[in-house]
Design a protein that fits this description.
This protein is an all-alpha fold. It has 10 helices and no strands. It starts with a helix and ends in a 21-residue tail after the last helix.
């Protein structure tokens, strides 16, 4: 199983960008994540634009990576600087003294994951498959996920400005407690769809590995959020009613809690 040269360039790019986590280790999976995806999108546009393998569909997918990454990275950076309530909540969760060996392991693992996530689009470019119908179907799903995630973040920010000490249960949060994570999962589902008709053999193993891992990370993040919210709002009767009636991740699926699943640790 040989890897194309350009995969190693993507990996080098994600290593360079996510190295921001050595300043603050949680940035490996936050700022480093968003900006790494944007960087990969830009790099694929450059590499395959030069080789003239870009088609309208693959151009759109790469552009969505760039838009997704910069939106997420920018939002997280703004929250780091401007959100006092977020920083207060995260004070007890972020370890200050993380051994260098652990940081290096997180850095390399995250960089690998970020490469795996974009492989369905990468292989469509690398295999010279052009823009099949699934390219545009996947891109449409990606766009829908991006819009959902963006709207959820905006709604939460506005609600927290009005009442920073109350949980958010308005807008999209009436349908599901983690609509931003849902949007993320939809986005990466769209990415996988773009590979249909182009990705083949062992390439699918890598693509699906990246997809399964990011879905796992989303549920792990939902579990951490649930634990934190239970601690902050558990005594509030309205909150208890909210978590018992609104699904945590997917609308209309009666999964109301993932706190008990201790294997959801990332």
């Amino acid at each position: 199983m040989a890897f194309p040269v350009y995969i190693w360039l993507l990996f080098a790019a994600t290593l360079a960008i996510s190295a921001i986590g050595f300043k603050k280790y949680v940035w490996f999976i936050s700022l480093g994540y968003g900006f790494s995806i944007a960087g990969e999108g830009i790099l694929m546009l450059i590499l395959y634009g030069i080789g003239q393998k870009l088609t309208p569909g693959t151009l759109l997918c790469c552009a969505l990576f760039v838009l997704y990454g910069f939106r997420l990275g920018g939002y997280l950076a703004f929250r780091e600087v401007k959100s006092a309530s977020y920083n207060r909540n995260m004070t007890g969760e972020i370890k200050k003294d993380v051994p260098m060996g652990v940081k290096v392991a997180i850095w390399i693992t995250c960089a690998l994951l970020y490469v795996l996530q974009v492989l369905p689009v990468f292989y469509r470019l690398e295999n010279g498959s052009g823009s099949g119908a699934w390219t545009f179907i996947g891109a449409a799903v990606m766009l829908g996920g991006l819009i959902l995630e963006s709207a959820a973040d905006i709604q939460k920010s506005k609600a927290k400005k009005v009442n920073p000490k109350r949980f958010v249960d308005t807008g999209l949060y009436r349908l599901v407690r983690c609509p931003n994570y849902l949007g993320e999962m939809i986005f990466w589902t769209g990415v996988v769809l773009t590979g249909i008709g182009s990705v083949h053999g062992w390439q699918w193993v890598l693509c699906l590995l990246g997809y399964v891992l990011i879905i796992f990370v989303m549920f792990s993040g939902a579990r951490r959020l649930e634990i934190r919210q239970n601690k902050n709002y558990g005594s509030d009767p309205e909150y208890r009613k909210y978590v018992q009636t609104v699904p945590i991740m997917v609308p209309f699926i009666p999964l109301y809690s993932v706190e008990k699943y201790k294997w959801l640790v990332a």
